[in-house]
Design brief:
Layout: E1 5-11, H1 17-30, E2 36-39, H2 45-55, H3 64-88, E3 92-96, H4 99-109, H5 114-125, E4 132-137, H6 140-158, H7 170-186, E5 191-195, H8 200-217
Parallel strand pairs: 1-3, 1-4, 2-3, 4-5
The structure holds thymidine-5'-phosphate.
């Protein structure tokens, strides 16, 4: 059985990942494939509990190292339970966030540095690398505005509190944004950078183009 294709979506809160991952999954299904869609943190029963702990704004005074370790605990579980079995079965896996998020948020935002994150990735995740990473990078102002409005809406509708990261200051998000750009510059082969304030359709077109190319390289015609 040929190995599947591992695709990750990355970007700041409010970058439009959630909308795009849904459209991408439908686009892949129209090509006769059945993608596995997952997200981090979360995506497993244990991961959902870790997610609640990480994102709830009542989790006060969480040390940056605790946050880092929880992100990797969640990821180790997702790899073992969802990602590796799906790839071994030849599936396309679409994962909303992966280790680039940890490098950008904990490495950049929390200033723990890239090296620690990359070392932990080797130790905890067997250095599993995505075949393709779609990095959505609209301007910081657009991301912050969208993320705040979305969180207010979710909190009003469901009472769910996932605001802990949104309470961070702009300087934190500026560092996250810059770290993402650094990752894209370091790994242009893996990372498709989709920059600027584009429409949903324009972003989808760029995503479809990058994914079509990757599918061809693993032998799926589109
Ligand atoms: P989401 O809303 O896109 O699911 O992301 C949840 C939040 O968790 C988002 O603010 C980014 C943050 N995060 C990290 O700080 N480090 C990580 O490794 C991951 C996966 C997410």
């Amino acid at each position: 059985m040929p190995r599947g294709l591992f695709i990750t979506l990355e970007g700041l809160d409010g970058s439009g990942k959630t909308t795009q991952i849904k459209r991408l999954a439908a686009w892949i299904q129209r090509r006769g494939l059945d993608p596995v869609v997952t997200r981090q943190p979360g995506g497993t029963a244990t991961g959902d509990r870790i997610r609640a702990l990480l994102l709830d704004s009542r989790s006060t005074a969480l040390a940056p190292m605790t946050e880092l370790a929880l992100m990797f605990a969640d990821r180790a579980q997702a790899i073992a339970e969802v990602i590796e079995p799906a790839l071994a079965a030849g599936k396309v896996v679409l994962c909303d966030r992966f280790t680039d998020s940890t490098e950008a948020y904990q490495g950049g935002g929390r200033q723990l540095g890239s090296q620690l994150v990359l070392d932990m990735h080797r130790l905890v995740c067997g250095n599993l690398q995505p075949d393709l990473t779609l990095l959505l990078l609209p301007s910081l102002a657009v991301c912050l505005d969208r993320a705040r409005r979305r969180n207010d809406r979710v909190a009003a509708q469901s009472g769910k509190d996932e605001n802990r990261f949104e309470q961070e200051q702009e300087a934190f998000y500026q560092r996250v944004w810059e770290k993402y750009r650094e990752i894209a510059a370091r790994e242009p082969q893996r990372v498709a950078l989709i920059e600027g304030n584009l429409t949903i359709d324009e972003v989808h077109e760029q995503i479809a183009e990058a994914v079509a190319e990757s599918l061809i390289t693993v032998g799926h015609a589109c």
